[in-house]
Write a structure and sequence with these properties.
The protein has 416 residues and is mainly alpha-helical. The chain is built from 17 helices and no strands.
Length: 416
């Protein structure tokens, strides 16, 4: 791939980090297997982890713009390593709750910074290709992480946290080798004192929520995440209720992981020539139809076919949504704008998953999947209306770097 060495350092670092990071599901198993928390306290621990993830989007993006994306990643990972090791030693519920919040935050604080770092490493016209490959690494790490965690939980539970800490340090070391962050774009306008810098960052965090097209985009992102994140809550339970074994469920979800890894690098070329909102419409439509098709699924084959459909939506959505918001971020604020996206998406962890389970328990899974279908199609319609809103044109954000005459809103297959 014709991408600079600095990108591949970031790629391998993030992949190693995701491979070693302990997923909340295995954190729950560790806590309950070792009798560290009562069963009634487990939802609180998981909820605090999720709250940390939600907070990390806004804060991580603002910090990346304030001190630089490279510095943000390098600074966060050693702290994450220390917190992981403390988890292995902690046995008091209050300490475990505090560590859950902090590690949830640190597990995702690098994501807006990663997107911002890519935008400074690669030319603007290669962002979609680079970010697609970046997500391949993310998916590889996240796909292998449960396998590694399950093995370590059986062999040596403490090793879960040692591996987590080691992977964080590897990430920091590789990104440390990336060239230093470029000077701030805003030059003399950049605040010097800490109070002024914090006030400026707070204003920057709010900025995406003042642009009509981005407000609509972020709201639609949240709603689409409520559809997609049923994969972490209602979908496995529905499959189990339909008679699938744990192995069958693992196979179905593995199909999603394998297809994502294979198809993500192809997305920028496939959508070349499309207007910016068209891939978003297609992504929402595929997700709606895929999850909605679960209403007819009662076997491993039918659940797998439905998974193939919503996976097509996922692989379209991930790189093209990041590209959509990066194209509209003012110069020097890409991290903050990407942070607003991760905030909107991660908020669905807190709301979408529980709401889906509540609907399934009260009305049945059929009602859930039909509701998900309707919501997904409504989101697709919302994306179709985006061009009517102010700020739709790429690079239209305040302070955005103007595009050259040949740098159009959509990217041709050749430049990708």
């Amino acid at each position: 791939m014709n991408l600079p060495k600095a990108f591949w350092l970031l790629w391998f670092g993030q992949t190693a980090s995701r491979l070693g990071t302990l997923a909340p599901a295995f954190l729950v198993l560790y806590l309950e297997d070792n009798g560290l928390v009562a069963p009634g306290t487990t939802p609180l621990v998981v909820g605090l982890f999720g709250a940390g993830v939600v907070l990390s989007g806004l804060v991580g993006g603002a910090v990346a713009d304030l001190i630089g994306p490279r510095r943000t990643i390098v600074a966060a990972q050693p702290v994450a390593a220390v917190m992981a090791l403390l988890f292995a030693l902690a046995d008091h519920v209050v300490v475990l709750c505090a560590l859950s919040l902090i590690t949830g935050f640190l597990s995702s604080v690098d994501r807006p910074a990663g997107a911002g770092l890519i935008s400074s490493i690669v030319p603007k016209e290669q962002f979609s290709k680079a970010y697609s490959l970046f997500l391949v690494g993310f998916n590889i790490g996240m796909s292998l992480s449960p396998v590694l965690s399950g093995f370590l939980l059986e062999v040596s539970p403490t090793a879960l946290f040692v591996v987590w800490a080691a992977s964080s340090l590897v990430y920091a070391a590789l990104v440390f080798a990336v060239p230093a962050d470029p000077p701030p774009v805003r030059g003399s306008d950049r605040p010097t004192g800490l109070p002024a810098a914090l006030r400026s960052s707070a204003r920057d965090i709010a900025e995406p929520f003042r642009t009509p097209v981005l407000v609509a985009f972020l709201l639609l992102t949240f709603l689409l995440a409520c559809v997609y994140l049923q994969v972490n809550s209602a979908l496995p339970l529905d499959m189990r209720g339909s008679g699938l074994t744990s192995g069958n469920i693992g196979f179905v979800l593995a199909v999603n992981a394998v297809l994502s890894i294979l198809l993500l690098p192809l997305v920028p070329r496939l959508v070349g020539g499309m207007r910016a909102h068209v891939p978003l419409i297609l992504a929402a439509g595929f997700m709606a139809l895929g999850f909605g098709a679960n209403v007819f699924a009662h076997s491993m084959i039918s659940f797998t076919l439905a998974t193939v459909v919503w996976t097509l939506g996922e692989v379209l959505w991930a790189p093209m949504s990041a590209t959509f918001i990066a194209d509209r971020a003012p110069a020097g604020r890409i991290g903050t704008y990407q942070g607003s996206y991760f905030f909107a998406w991660n908020a669905a962890f807190v709301i979408g998953g529980p709401a889906g389970l509540a609907l399934a328990h009260t009305r049945g899974y059929g009602a859930l999947w039909m509701s998900v279908l309707a919501l997904g199609l409504a989101v697709a319609l919302g994306f179709a209306l985006l061009p009517r809103l102010a700020g739709f044109g790429a690079g239209s954000g305040s302070g955005a770097t103007p595009r050259t005459p040949t740098d159009t809103t959509t990217l041709t297959p050749e430049t990708r």
